Amino acid sequence: MKTATLTLKQFYNSLNGKFATLNGEFSPLDSVKVLIKDKVKNPWSLAIMVGSFVLMITAAIVVYFLQEDFYQLRLDRLNSSVGSVFLYVGFALLLFKGGFFLYNLYLYFRYKPVASVADAALPTVTVIVPAYNEGKQVWATLMSLAKSDYPMDKLQLLAVDDGSKDDTWYWMKEAKKILGDRVTIFQQPKNMGKRHALYRGFNLGTGEVFVTVDSDSIVNADTLRNLVSPFVVNEKCGAVAGNIQVLNNQNAVLPKMLNVSFVLSFEFRRSAESQLNTVLCTPGALAAYRSEAVFACLPEWINQTFMGQPSDIGEDRAMTNMILKQGYHVLFQRNAYAYTNVPEKYKGLYKMFIRWGRSNVRENIVMAKYVFANFRKESKIGPRLLFISQALKIIMTYPFLLFMLYFIISHPILFLSSTLLSILVVSTFPVLFYAKRYSVSKAFWAYSYSILFTFGLFWITPYAIATANRRGWLTRELTAN
């Protein structure tokens, strides 16, 4: 396929609504580089990365010199009924998590993405892009999708403006001017939430497969065909999760950290889950669903409630749960990439994690109602192990939070040094994983992220559990992350 690239000047002009032709094609990754408007490198990046490593090495030295104190602490715990219970429970959980990690590692090495099928075998696809206050970004999203290496007669592109308060609708219309009949745009009469925007798209779509893409995401040219190929070769496939990476990872420190975290979450964990045919969450940034599976649960999905309140978060995890419940397989395609924006500041980050945490609590409760039933003909051991692992995190949240607070108050130096040493040990795997897959230098952000998560975001899960019934997207009205 002959491809011409768009010059930087042409792409800048296109962002201002001056793009005039579709004769040439541009690489989505090239457009990403322009859209981000490469910022001056953060001078604190290297200091944070090096400082994190020095901090952990210092902690390891402290632990070495305080071995007698740690030995005495273990004896004190064993001589205490409460302490011994925590010690044995902790050891049992460590064995479970260690064994589960090795099992995931085994599954990861067995995983292979489904190869792209021929054009003639590809299903008809409806791509739905819900948008709210995305501005110019929605234009770039629609353009990257329109440039997909997918048969035009099999691709339906729908964009739904969910009552945006900015110029999102303007940029949708600008995309429409360029793409013509290749995209259909809609505007909700008022802001109704992402779930309702998707619902409108599902009802208007005609494809055999629905693909949902967030309006702050960019896809590769081969993403769509790679994403939907599992539906062709596996008739039991009901949904497919795409491979999400961070779009704005050149901007600020947090996106750099999150990019490493995303790679581990998708390329390792979801690869393992895919081997069990049970990916627990198809991400809103990029996911595909068999239309039959969607329509079978659509009324329940749009009317879903939690503790008597309409569910306005976690629409992706809810859809995944309902499709798994039908007995379908849910898979992951490592070769189907999407690049999405993430928060660049702490406030935006913790709000995003709270939303994810609340959704996780809700959908684990939902999963508990069917995962031990005969919900699929094949082996159900894998899904049940995944559920148990998720449930244990929630169940043990408060006991370990109390234990951590007690440890901090009674032995602050021992707590700090042992925790930092643990981070050094545990986070070495994601460092090696990212270094092997992508970049050695960027891999060390895994250490910094683990320190941030341990000391700056530890409260997210207990808070999400306590407030799981609360509604609200939390980040939808933010103009800056």
Descriptive overview:
The chain has 481 residues and is of the alpha/beta class. It has helices spanning 8-15, 28-36, 44-65, 67-78, 81-110, 136-146, 168-179, 194-204, 223-233, 253-275, 291-302, 315-325, 346-368, 381-395, 397-410, 412-426, 428-437, 440-443, 445-456, 460-466, and strands at residues 125-131, 155-161, 183-187, 209-213, 217-219, 237-246, 286-290, 305-306, 309-310, 329-340. The protein folds into two domains: 1-38, no CATH class; 53-481, Spore Coat Polysaccharide Biosynthesis Protein SpsA, Chain A, CATH 3.90.550.10. Helix content is 57%, strand content 12%. The chain has an eight-stranded mixed beta sheet with strand order 3-2-1-4-7-6-10-5, sandwiched between helices. Strands 8-9 form a two-stranded antiparallel sheet. The longest helix is centred in the N-terminal third of the chain and has 30 residues, at 81-110. It is globular.
